[in-house]
């Protein structure tokens, strides 16, 4: 795979106390937009084309990156109104060409081995594969359960229970044509409206990784990124 979609239009509501008036993906980490770390991660796996799904304050992203970043071609899927994670992915996929496309949340850095992830996706012949992360406390995310064949059986709601489990790591491989043919061009949630329903009728695979993971969606983790990202190779 050489194409990827990044959901980069988040409001960053919970980050407003520390980062104001810019999309969450542009939050500065050690003087660089968070999004640059994601792009450098993809460059390390030889990705060539990135579609940025943007909406809120999209001009700040477009003016910073333009049509390229290093050797990456950048294309924009601009939401005139919020489309949700599902609608954002769908619009971005219309600007892609490959059979399988990587999709990433624009506020999470999860350093999965993408070669291995792609290999497992094809081995399972999955419609969508999701990179899962084991965490000590699932309450912020909700738990995902898989069977012994690595197919996802359920998506749990967020609970107050602070117990360990597998969560959605925010990285997906999606069969582009299937997704486009089985969704409508409207606002919808990929997690609630697609993933949960497709566990019944379609093959959604889940693969657990212990790679570095950080979601900058809350101030505490955004501040943690300032220190931990200094150790990264990107």
Put the structure in a nutshell.
29% of the residues lie in helices and 29% in strands. The chain is of the alpha/beta class and 234 residues long.
Provide the helix percentage: 25-40%
Strand content: 25-35%
Give the termini separation. 21 Å
CATH class: Alpha Beta
* CATH fold-level name: Spore Coat Polysaccharide Biosynthesis Protein SpsA, Chain A
Q: How many strand elements?
A: 14
Report the structural category.
alpha/beta
Number of helices: 7
Biggest sheet architecture: 8 strands, mixed
Unreliable sequence segments: none
| Overall mean confidence score, pLDDT | 91
CATH superfamily: Spore Coat Polysaccharide Biosynthesis Protein SpsA, Chain A
Radius of gyration: 17 Å
Model description:
With 234 residues, this protein is an alpha/beta fold. The protein has a single domain, classed as Spore Coat Polysaccharide Biosynthesis Protein SpsA, Chain A, CATH 3.90.550. Helix content is 29%, strand content 29%. The longest helix is centred in the last third of the chain and has 12 residues. The radius of gyration is 17 Å and the shape is globular.
Topology (elements, then pairings):
Layout: E1 3-7, E2 28-29, E3 32-33, H1 34-43, E4 49-54, H2 58-65, E5 68-69, E6 72-78, H3 84-93, E7 100-105, E8 108-110, H4 114-124, E9 128-135, E10 144-146, E11 152-155, E12 165-175, H5 176-181, H6 190-201, E13 204-209, E14 213-215, H7 219-228
Parallel strand pairs: 1-4, 1-7, 4-6, 9-13
Antiparallel strand pairs: 2-3, 5-6, 7-12, 8-14, 9-12, 10-11
